[in-house]
Structure formats: structure tokens, C-alpha cells
Amino acid sequence: MLVIGFPAQVFGTNCYVVAPAAGEECLVVDPGIGVLGQLSAVLEEHGLRPAAVLATHGHLDHVYSVTPVCQAHGVAVRVHGADTYRLVDPAATLGPELRAMFEQQFGKDGWHEPDDVVELEHGQKLTIAGIELDVVHAPGHTEGSVIFTVPGVPSSLDAGHGLTSTAFAGDVLFAGSIGRTDLPGGSGAAMMRSLRERVLPMADDTLVLPGHGPATTIGRERASNPYLREEALR
């Protein structure tokens, strides 16, 4: 499996390109703000053709480039049904001050709702671009936050540790932390439940590719992440 990740220009949101190998169809996960140039370069360098865009949730910094990517390649965006409303206007949940700052920098016409939106639900098993995915609904950061899990790990990220699967965790789980729950649609109680019922049951040898920051593993987070340790003791 080929996985190429790079941070967006704003908020450092990780965008991932996932494919069985170079020269194949691929998935684009969480294309955020200012990623189009780098994404195009990655696709050209590796001969990749997007078959779908996946959104771990509907926050602006994870979906800002969804529409131009979908339009350029004639593909749909897939997002959990509870977060589809955010694609109408992702900036609406920023709050007036943050929204004003954002519009001052990027303009008021920077967002256009995607034409083709496919709703996801918990437990779905998908095969897109030759890649098998499981959809794990893990609300708390937003109502429709999901983790996409796939069998296998890119050799470039395994480093001989014997990892067996990969989780694209969005803003549910970070190295040493979790996503914030104080934004509109967030819930601390839902997040703790997601950690307990969705994250902790995952195998220790799962590579975690989060929405922000460096990669980690479930085993490492189980042992050191204070939020997971707290839930594990319940």
C-alpha cells in the first residue's frame, strides 16, 4: 500500500493520498486549505488517479479543497451522514470572529458545496480503488467524525515494527492527545464513549495516521495517552 501524507498550508491538517501502488487509482483523505498544488504534484509524480475523496469529518480545515478535487476528477466525497450538513457552509460553525478572519484572508467566495456527496454510516465496509475500508463512527469532535481503517501498512511507515493495519483517525485521536470537543457539535461525553467503544478495542499493532501531527500506534497511545489511559481504567 502506498500512503503519502503532507500538511495543509493552514492549521497543518494532514492530507493523505492512499493507493495500492503507484500508477493506480487512489483515495484522497481530508484535502484541507491550500493543498491543491501539492496534491497535484503527488498525483503526477506517482501516476495516481483519484477515485474518491474521504472526509473524516466536516470541519473547514479538513474539507476546504473537497469541491475542487471532486470536480477536477469527477468523483464523490464520502462523509458520515451526521456531518453532511457541514458541507453546505463549513465556515458557519467557526463563530463570527474566526469566520471574519478567515474570510478576510481567503475571501467570501472560497467555498462551494460539492455536487456529489455520499453518506457513510458506522460499520460500512467499502472497496474503492482496490482498497478495503471499514467505517468507524466515533463522534465527539463532531457528530459525524469517523475513523477509516484499512488492512496493511505502508512499508515506509512500518519501520520493522510489525504493524498490521492503518487507521486514518481524523481529529478523534492524536499522538498524545485527542480532538477538542468545545466547538459546535462537539461533545466531551461522546468523545470519551468513542475512545472507550471504538478506539480502545483496536489492536495495538494499528498504525494511526491522525488529522494533525505525527503518526503513532494504538499500542503507544494505550500506554501513554492520558485520555486513553483514563478510559481504560474505567
Short description:
This protein is an alpha/beta fold and 234 residues long.
Account of the protein in words:
Helices cover 27% and strands 28% of the residues. The protein is α/β, with parallel strands linked by helices. It has a single domain (2-232), classed as 4-Layer Sandwich (Metallo-beta-lactamase, Chain A). A 6-stranded mixed β-sheet has the order 1-2-3-4-5-6, covered by helices on one side. A 6-stranded mixed β-sheet has the order 7-8-9-10-13-14. It has a two-stranded antiparallel sheet with strand order 11-12. Strand 7 (125-128) and strand 8 (131-137) form a beta hairpin. Helix 6 (188-199) packs across helix 8 (226-232) and helix 7 (218-224) packs across helix 8 (226-232). The N and C termini lie far apart (36 Å).
Key attributes of the depicted protein:
single chain, metal-binding, 14 strands, alpha/beta, Metallo-beta-lactamase, Chain A, 28% strand, six-stranded mixed beta sheet, 27% helix, 8 helices, 234 residues, MBL fold metallo-hydrolase
Q: What is the CA-based Rg, rounded?
A: 17 Å
Poorly predicted regions: none
Instruction: Enumerate how many helices there are, as a single number.
Output: 8
User: What strand line-up does the widest sheet have?
Assistant: 1-2-3-4-5-6
Architecture in CATH? 4-Layer Sandwich
